[in-house]
Design a protein that fits this description.
Layout (H helix, E strand, L loop, with lengths): L2 H10 L4 E5 L21 H11 L2 E5 L4 H7 L5 E4 L4 E4 L2 E4 L7 H15 L4 E3 L4 E4 L9 H16 L2 E5 L2 E5 L6 H8 L5 E6 L5 H12 L5 E8 L13 E4 H22 L1
Parallel strand pairs: 1-2, 1-10, 2-3, 10-11, 11-12
Antiparallel strand pairs: 3-4, 4-5, 6-7, 7-9, 8-9
């Protein structure tokens, strides 16, 4: 099981293949200020070409749809906030239970900015992230943010989730990237998912469990390796590439394979 098997299927039946990708650290390089992150060179063109060549393409991210819409063309479907928001066929939607948490999140954002500063807190509307990458030189910053988030979660009922040099607070709604992939993968039988962080593990497990249960015929869980890659991801990756540039090269390999199949049919 892995990329070679999916490529073999793409060479025969490109419409049976779906490709799903995280955004930060996968299609883009990480940055101290999350608002300055842009797609890596060639990422958008690759997504658009891939969407025309295979059965399904989508970006599955922890970012809100407001952010993704600025960087991902409307032709590419997106899932944001781990599946709490989405844009499918150009139409936006969100989980039925998400809106009721906006006031709680807004209050916590104001409190966190008073505690850690404006730049350390990312407002995602129905979730929030505390970033300590910018302040990593300050002793104890990560520990202070983690303690603050744990206390906030205990008081409000929100869920605290670790991420790369950050910690996120989400509504207590059973929704993750695996659910998002499952909801968008119904028309394909061979899946690739590219990711770089622990939030991508549920998506990988949806693929591997789907193959084991016979819902998919093949899958590839592709780790986009970087300097901050959590060690747990290596155990569940079928394939590894180095950073966004190699991730985009993999997308282009899939494009060439699928286009070759179309040309020979």
């Amino acid at each position: 099981m892995g990329l070679a098997e999916v490529l073999e299927l793409a060479a025969r039946e490109p419409a049976s293949v779906g490709v799903f990708s995280d955004f930060d650290g996968t299609l883009s390089f990480l940055a101290p200020d999350p608002e300055t992150v842009e797609p890596a060179p060639g990422a958008v063109d690759a997504l658009l070409e891939l969407e025309a060549a295979i059965g399904r393409v989508a970006v599955v991210s922890g970012r809100p749809i407001d952010f993704l819409e600025r960087h991902v063309p409307e032709a590419i479907d997106c899932s944001g906030l781990y599946g709490l928001e989405w844009r499918v066929s150009g139409i936006r939607g969100e989980h039925d239970d998400a809106d009721g948490w906006r006031a709680t999140i807004a209050e916590l954002i104001a409190s966190a900015r008073g505690e850690f500063g404006e730049d350390a807190v990312e407002d995602k509307g129905i979730s929030m992230t505390l970033h300590y990458r910018r302040a990593e030189a300050a002793s104890g910053t990560a520990e202070a943010m983690e303690s603050w988030a744990a206390a906030a979660a205990a008081i409000t009922g929100l869920h605290a989730r670790p991420a790369k040099k950050s910690i996120e607070l989400h509504p207590p709604i059973e929704q993750h990237k695996g659910d998002a992939v499952a909801s968008m993968a119904r028309s394909v039988s061979a899946l690739v998912y590219l990711g770089d962080d622990v939030g991508d593990l549920p998506a990988w497990r949806e693929l591997t469990e789907g193959v084991a249960e016979g819902r998919y015929v093949a899958c590839a869980t592709v780790l986009v390796r970087g300097t901050e890659t959590p060690s747990a991801l290596f155990d569940e990756a079928t394939d590894v590439v180095d950073g966004p540039i190699e991730a985009i090269a993999l997308l282009n390999q899939l494009i060439a394979t699928a286009q070759g199949a179309a040309a020979s049919s």
